[in-house]
Amino acid sequence: MASRLASLGGEASEEPARKLEVSLLGLQRDAEGEAARAWRKLLCSLAHDPCLRLAPLIRLLGAPDRAAQGGAPLGPPRGGAPLAASPLRWKLDQWEGPRVPSAAGGGGSGRMRLRVRRDWYPKDHASAAAEVVGSASPPLLSVPCRLVRLLSAQPGVLQLHRDAVRFLPDPPCEAEAASVAEDRSSCVEASSVEAARPRCWPLSLLDDVAQRRHLPPDCRAARRGELQARHAELVDDWRSWRISNFDYLMQLNTLAGRSYNDLTQYPVVPWVLQDYTSETLDLADPAVYRDLSKPVGALEPERADKFAERYRGLAQEYDPRAGEAAGLPPFHYGSHYSSAGAVLYYLLRLEPFTSEAIRLQGGRFDVADRLFDSIPETWRSCMSNMSDVKELIPEFYTLPDFLRNDAQLPLGTMQAGNALGDAHLPPWAASAEGFVELHRAALESEHVSEHLHLWIDLIFGCKQRGRAAAEALNVFYYLTYEGAVSLDTLGPQQREAVEAQILFFGQTPTQLLSRPHPRRRRREASGPQPQMFSRPDAVRPYAWPLRRLAGGRSGRPEAADPLEFIAVLPLEDRLLTISASGRLCLHKWFPLKPRSSPSCPFTFDPATAPIATLRAGASADDDARFRPARSYAVADGERRSCRWLLSGGHADCSVRCMLVLKPEVVVLGRHHADTVTAIHVTADGLSFATGSADTTAVLWALMACPTPLRVLSGHRGPLQEEAASVTLGPHECVAVWAVPNGRFVRSLPVHERAVAVAVAHASQRLLVATQRSVHVFSVSGRPLAVVSPDRGVGRIVPTIDGELALLSEGSALAVRRISDLQLLHRYDLEAGGAASGAPLRAFSLSAENHHAFAGTADGGLTIYANPVVGIQVLERLASELLNL
């Protein structure tokens, strides 16, 4: 069958879609058992695909479980050319060898490609570009632009359509096309090929539009009003501790025009520590922190004197009235704190930065003694070397992978005889994860919070330019500043030299402030939002027997109807609950209004009757033959004024979207071939993902009606649960996906059947619960901690700060620290009024983590609250009102 499929795939570009479907029907008659069911699902998907994409066909050529084998879903890019217009050429990823493993050795038949991707670089560039947008509506706006990617800028046209933004690259020159055709295995050429393809971004996936520059004339005056308006709101959030130091720095970088896509204007963050030699690190000791009021070049007194002397000498020689003979404007530093070379120096061990570093060095790695090998040595160089004043990049606070040589790159051997591998860490860091965790804690410490505004003045504020910069020893080479030279007035050769200087030797961010940056308020006066589990022993349970709320006509209470779903609707002051029988209730919920009888720090008025009953099908007959819906989620949608309730598990294989306050308004979304078994809503509430018994997951845009964006394939059985970019299937398969493009990233090494999964975004951790253990992974899939609870885990919910996680362990609610899964507290539902041994069926946290809600199998609802937190929140609100 595999050979027939291979030959069929080769003929697909010439034969019409109808003939291909007839051939597939013939193959279906040859299949038996599980294979026959797979063919039926394939034909069902082909029937709903008018373009007859190649992906379903090629997926059958691969391994039975792509995620378990480490492979990615196959097929052309979304929005790419149809089957008949795409050449059938394939290539392995850059990090794989030329040999393709065969499944014959493992007892199977047919060939198998791992992590194969489509090479669809067309011979006719213009026709392929037209094919991409041929079915789209006419563009509302079309402007010339350049797509900036690392160290390259691809010229093309940016088109704005009603539903998407599209980029059409200019046709490549003949020399570039010839070089690509000559050798397609080069990393550099592959990168240029990938950059030349058209691109499409749906408007539903766009979060923000930020202005930035790429070698333009001075545009500060045009942007000053917008930057000041956006920064005013941002700085208030930071001073009030509503956002962290790291988030604030990243927002400032975005406002200043810096981006991860441009190595010449990469985000910049400060060194915050100066102790990289001690065995232990005491973050309460001010002596371990760097002086944030001075640039890196001025931290060491003797070197600072040399820089000041250089500036005075250049100032004496500079005469701006002398024209071309004026000399160079005075500066302290000839190098810069942020440049493409510094970024590649730090990220040498990660792709695509490895390939970029090799390209800059003429096809090889630089001398080993000049490569990044040790954090303590790098800090020592920044304190002593006259040409080294670089700051840090965000990865020092977020991504430990850049410190490891997981790819086993041949980085060479130093003169001392030491082979370069993983970067050396300070003695106080036991691992790369430990270094990033402590480094991030130092950035968010009280000391750094009190002095961070001084560093902001140097990089983005009033001490970036002029006399204040000269007094602070913070003047760099004049070409690094925006608007220092008008490129349009230069000749071709001189302009090329100036552009090279600007691109490779650093660019100073756009100046955001002309006045001193305000200081952050003290944590005691305006600390972070109180968390109910900051003191787990002070949390109290309050039980409500919801099973007695809807008695029959005889007045007797009904049988237990356990809750399956709980969600808080803060804008509507309601608590939404859905029972196992599908009864949807909206209870009055006022978290900050204490109730005197019974005594509790909130007001909860149970509903007397359900507002709707959710059924699995369209009639009672469907309910008799089909189980009720068991997967739910709440989303804001495109219009924040109305909330959607999403439900799955229906007989028609759809996901149903209904207005929470008007459940009779139902919109159906159909794209699965089997029942929807899992639903997860993204953090912005504008998109969601569904998992199905047909083994696929679908990404949807939640607009006026649910619109499918991408299909994720790779599991061998029904998907059991989803969390952000993680899907959970049977047979020990936990897959991690890149949500924006639907690309498979990796599978987690879980060797037991997983039952629950969660993502802690704040701490960048993945939590997976199996039948006998709970695991914590980094975002790169590295195991960090594991624990075996004495009770089975049913669900995991991380707190908003990413420090703690709530787990349903049997009939108890457990609070564990995410870093090491240490048990901090356990709340037995029996103490809250639940029946003895009643398992926990559903639980959730409020958005601010002030309250927790748990439902048990006997139909009860237990609300956990910390009375002290309620008082702190009320005091916070009163203080903010007085400040207004």
TrEMBL record:
What's the superkingdom here? Answer: Eukaryota
> Residues annotated as region Disordered?
512-534
SUPFAM superfamilies xrefs: BEACH domain, WD40 repeat-like
Start-end of the WD repeats?
Answer: 669-700
Query: Residue limits of the BEACH domain?
Result: 223-520
Tell me the CDD domains matching this sequence.
Beach
Q: Which UniProt keywords apply?
A: Repeat, WD repeat
InterPro entries assigned to the protein according to its UniProt record, in alphabetical order: BEACH_dom (IPR000409), BEACH_dom_sf (IPR036372), BEACH_Domain (IPR050865), WD40/YVTN_repeat-like_dom_sf (IPR015943), WD40_repeat_dom_sf (IPR036322), WD40_rpt (IPR001680)
PANTHER family from the UniProt entry: BEACH DOMAIN-CONTAINING PROTEIN C2, BEIGE/BEACH-RELATED
Q: What is the name attached to this protein's record?
A: BEACH domain-containing protein
